[in-house]
Amino acid sequence: MKICLITDDYLPSSRKSAGKMMHELALEFKSRGHDVTVVAPSANLKKSSEISQLDGVTVCQFRSGEIKNVSNVKRAINETLLSYHAWGALKPYFKQDHHDLIIYYSPTIFWGRLVR
Fold first, then answer.
1. What is the C-alpha to C-alpha distance for residues 37 and 51, in angstroms, rounded to an integer?
2. What per-residue confidence (pLDDT) applies to 62?
3. Burial class (CB in 10 A: 0-12, 13-18, 19+), 52
4. Which of 6, 42, 67, 110 could bridge to 61 as Cys pair (CB 3.0-4.6 Å)?
């Protein structure tokens, strides 16, 4: 099964516990024979997106505004734009690489448009 995990925090650009736990979940799916893709924002990317491999997991990062350790107003604006930025940067990847299951992680409530 092709599984896509969508999260607001992931390795290697983050070392927070949520990012590590999502990686552990991805590795568990991988160990059970699934093909796993993780989609996550990064405020540090120079280009609009970057697709890489980490421990056999495909990591699709897209450039976004900061959503961690910033003011509530800045975070609200940048989180509202997450789906827009992800789709704009990764549309060709999503169009050619369909997934059987999509799991997206809260606390952000703004992944709905991307998932749809």
1. 10
2. 93
3. exposed
4. 42
> pTM for this structure?
0.86
End-to-end CA distance of the chain: 19
Measured CA to CA, the distance from residue 36 to residue 65 in angstroms comes to 25
Q: What angle do CA 115, 22, 12 make, to 5 degrees?
A: 105
* Residue 48, C-beta contacts closer than 8 angstroms, at least 6 positions apart: 62, 63, 88, 89
CATH number listed for the domain at residues 2-115? 3.40.50.2000
Task: List alpha helices for the chain, DSSP H.
Answer: 17-31, 72-80, 82-96, 112-115
| 8 Å CB contact between 3 and 103 | yes
Q: Are 35 and 26 in contact (CB under 8 A)?
A: no
Report pLDDT for 55: 94
Other beta carbons less than 10 A from residue 38's beta carbon: 23
